[in-house]
Every structure is written in C-alpha cells, then in structure tokens.
Write a structure and sequence with these properties.
It contains seven helices and eight strands, in the order E-E-H-E-H-E-H-E-E-H-E-E-H-H-H. By secondary structure, the chain is an alpha/beta fold. It has one domain.
Length: 303
C-alpha cells in the first residue's frame, strides 16, 4: 500500500504500508489472539469458520471463540472488547466523510482484540467489512464492486512492476492525472472507496494476488512520513502503520481532516486504554480522550 521500500516482514499486519507507509502492523505472535483454521466454508470437517455472507448469517457481527491465549482470563467489555478496567465505549463518536472504506479482512483478524480495523467501522458509518476466502469471495463485495455508484481504490504498495500501470496517486480521487472515472454514465459523482487488506503482510499479499476480482482496480499506495504510534503489536519498522493509522492518513491526504482527526483520537484512546490495562492501570482521560468526550457532548447537545 505504499512506496518502493522493501515490503514489511511477513509477521507485519498490513492495511497499508508506507515509506513511512502503511499496513496494519502486527508481530508474528499476538498475545491476545487465538489460532483458528482459515479454510473456506465447506472445506474439511469439524472446523468453525466465518461464513462468507456474514451480515446475513451473523447480523453484522462476527462469531467469537473463547480466548485461550494469554489474557483469556481478562474481563472484557462485550461491545469494545477491551478490558473493562479501561473500556473504550465512552469515547466512541462518529464522523462524516464522503470517502467509504471497505475492509477485506483475513478471518484470523476477527479474533484479535488488538485489531484496529474495527475502529474505522466505529467512527465512519457505511464502512463495510468482508471476510476473505480464496475460493469463495463474498457475494456482497462482488456486487458492490459492480455498482457504478462507487469508485474503489485498493490500498497497496507500488513496489512491483507487474501492476505499475494500475498505480495512481491520491489526486486520482478528484480525477486529476489518472484515467479514473469519477462520474457515472448519468453524470453523478461516484463515491470514492478505499479498500484495505486487513491482515499480516503475508496474508494481505495473498489476498492481493489471489483475488482476481481486484485485478482491474486502481492501486493507490500510501506515501507518508508518519511513524506508527501503535504499541500493542511490535512492528518491523516504525514506518509500518496499523490499519486505523493508514485510514486516518488516507483521509487526511484526501482532504477529510475532521474525520481523520476523530479517527486519530479514537485510535489513540484505544491504544492507550489497552496498553494501560495490560499493566492493570486505571487511565485518566488523555488529551485525545477529552476531545472525543467534548465532541460527544456537543453532538448530544445538538440533538
């Protein structure tokens, strides 16, 4: 999802990867994660998997297994999945953006409390999350990709020559400098969509290479000097951003400053709440938390 620097190590989580670049970063081991099989529904027997049509089958919520790894005895909030000691729920606010996000998520990521892709859904209404299976793509995703109301861009590094002809920059959102259709046949403006591949670098690379329905989409790499502030997984480099950080930076580069700031603050609150809970420390509201509380109060006052 970014520039020409070498790709992150296979243990790194990718939702973007930058030169300072962007992809959800993750270590090869996640202290709060549970290993599960990731075959498609119907492959093998006796294996619990996520059905590809999760919104209909699960009413928008992913099934969860009991945690068996370190942290399995922690009492967690059912809504935000953080330890109740520092629940994130009081700081959840929303923001408006003309840009939509569609996350193609590796099934393992649904079971990791440290996953940051879900923060995007909390802040931006209309965010879609799809589970990835190589042989059984989600029919909702396929339908949306055919919907002319949307102009999707897949966020991925521009470090390989075989798809160089598909690479665009952020100006393509406005139809500048790239052959990207910004309007429908009837003249209506198309809605820009950023597709994030949510998983480790190896998983994201596999999704990118093994999903033929993504082959014709423009590739938008993230170029940024931003360094990660994510403390819950160990990145291979400070230049490797987690999924929520990638989304915030993309929003900022696209001119969606308010949404970017809210998502940044929400990510910081998540990061700090989780880290404090690991050492059994009750956190006092930080500056980002206070801004989120003030925004929530202001929104409540308007209603």
């Amino acid at each position: 999802m970014c520039d020409s620097r070498p790709p992150p190590a296979d243990g790194d989580d990718i939702a973007a990867y930058a030169p300072h670049s962007a992809s959800a970063v993750a270590s090869s081991t996640d202290a709060d994660a549970v290993a599960i099989d990731t075959v498609a529904p119907g492959e093998g027997s006796g294996i619990t998997t996520l059905p590809s049509g999760e919104p209909e089958a699960w009413h928008g919520r992913h099934p969860r297994r009991e945690f068996k790894a370190r942290g399995s005895q922690v009492i967690r909030c059912e809504a935000c999945r953080l330890p109740r000691l520092n629940c994130l729920c009081p700081y959840q606010v929303t923001a408006e953006s003309r840009i939509k996000f569609w996350l193609i998520t590796h099934p393992l990521e649904h079971y990791k409390p440290t996953n940051t892709g879900r923060l995007i859904s909390d802040v931006l209404a209309g965010t879609e999350v799809f589970s990835w299976y190589r042989v059984e793509p989600d029919p909702r995703l396929l339908a949306l990709l055919e919907d002319e109301r949307y102009q999707p861009f897949i966020i991925f590094p521009d470090d390989q020559p075989d798809y160089a002809d598909r690479v665009v920059d952020v100006n393509a959102i406005a139809g500048v400098g790239a052959d990207v259709a910004t309007h429908t046949a009837s003249g209506e403006a198309r809605i820009p969509v950023f597709i994030l591949l949510d998983g480790t670098w190896r998983q994201a690379r596999r999704i990118f290479r093994k999903s033929p329905y993504l082959d014709d989409l423009p590739v938008l790499p993230l170029h940024t000097q931003r360094l990660t502030r994510y403390h819950l997984r160990k990145p291979a480099s400070e230049a490797h951003l987690c999924t929520a950080e990638v989304a915030a930076e993309l929003l900022r580069q696209a001119g969606e400053d308010d949404a970017a700031s809210v998502l940044d603050d929400y990510f910081d609150a998540f990061n700090d709440c989780y880290r404090a809970s690991r050492i059994h420390y009750v956190l006092e509201p930080t500056a980002p938390m206070r801004r989120l509380l003030a925004r929530r109060d202001a929104t409540s006052g308007e209603s």
